Amino acid sequence: MDLNLMRELSVSTDSRIVLLVLDGLGGLPMDPFGRTELEAANTPNLDALAAGSDLGLSRPVAAGVSPGSGPGHLALFGYDPLEYAVGRGVLSALGVGSELGEKDLAARINFATKDESGKISDRRAGRIATSDAAKLVDLLNENVKLDGAEVFVTHEKEHRAVAVFRADGLSGALSDSDPQRVGLEPLPVEPTNGTDGAAKESAELANAFIEEADRILADHHPANTVLLRGFGMHPALPKFDEIYELRAAAIAGYPMYKGLARLAGMEVLEEGEGIAGEFETLRDSWDSHDFFFVHVKATDAAGEDGDFERKSAAIEEVDALVPDLLELGPAALAVTGDHATPAKMESHSWHGVPFLLSSEYTLPTGESFGERTCAGGSLGVFAAEEIMGLLMGHALKLNRYGA
User: Fold this and answer.
1) Secondary-structure percent of the chain, ordered helix, strand, coil, rounded to 5
2) Whole-number CA gyration radius for the chain
């Protein structure tokens, strides 16, 4: 989508838009009846909504490409994820409120388990409790010493944290140490742009941090090592409100998605407890904003754990709250995900993401909300970058283009 075109045509009105993102919504057939997690879920409210909506499957990045959450969400917000590449570490840092200077380097941390042979046996250290992980963060901050640089570690949630490296001449052009699969040794952090001196020195700094962390955490099973990924530095991103003439708000329980929203220039609202609490925040804030990004994490976490039934249950929990959302009267409502996370694969995947758009101006083609009905919907398979344009159009927030 052309952001300059959006900036030219967007107009401020009283109508309201909701972008409801069930993280990792897309799935694959896995149950005895050949249904996906969404198709197997009991979703009478979403099905009724789908019967009057435009349906389609969105493609977050490109055919066959499995996106991270960063590019997946940037596409939902209308940004080209290939042009605006943002390291996950940056999003995590902004999400937890870290001070991230223009020269700072941020990286996402996973506390993980390394076996006696030096191979990763659990990339998430059993999803250790937040309270336990916070103590490990304190240990790292107290004991890690790096030559010529400072490092600040902040806990994010459960097994995740973020490291911010501060020194002159750093580079975010670095590979991850996370091998992405168990049974493999951690990878050395390496420059991704050849022999660039800044990247080489930054890689050495990151590897020194990992070595220090391994020493400090050696006796802290299951979290006896760290994996670093998503290196990045603060990018220049066009502001969401300036592009779309929206008073935008974000409601998310997980720090990274708050970071995404802050990066785009949205106001991050204090969310309630759980999915129901997020919907309560939406209701309580309805009069103060005209665009709401509401993020649900539980679907993605269940998919990554390979838990088909838990993912379906999370979808059902959202479905039960849909009537409350509709009572607010959004002019345009989209229900979708940032990518697929099939329980069958236990990871993000390249598969199409179910998309539903409800407004007064739709062309209904299906009777339920699922991958196969969306594939046959009026929108077909389309780029996720187009979602904001669709929402703006359906909410009557775009002027006509040309004479």
Assistant:
1) 35, 20, 45
2) 21
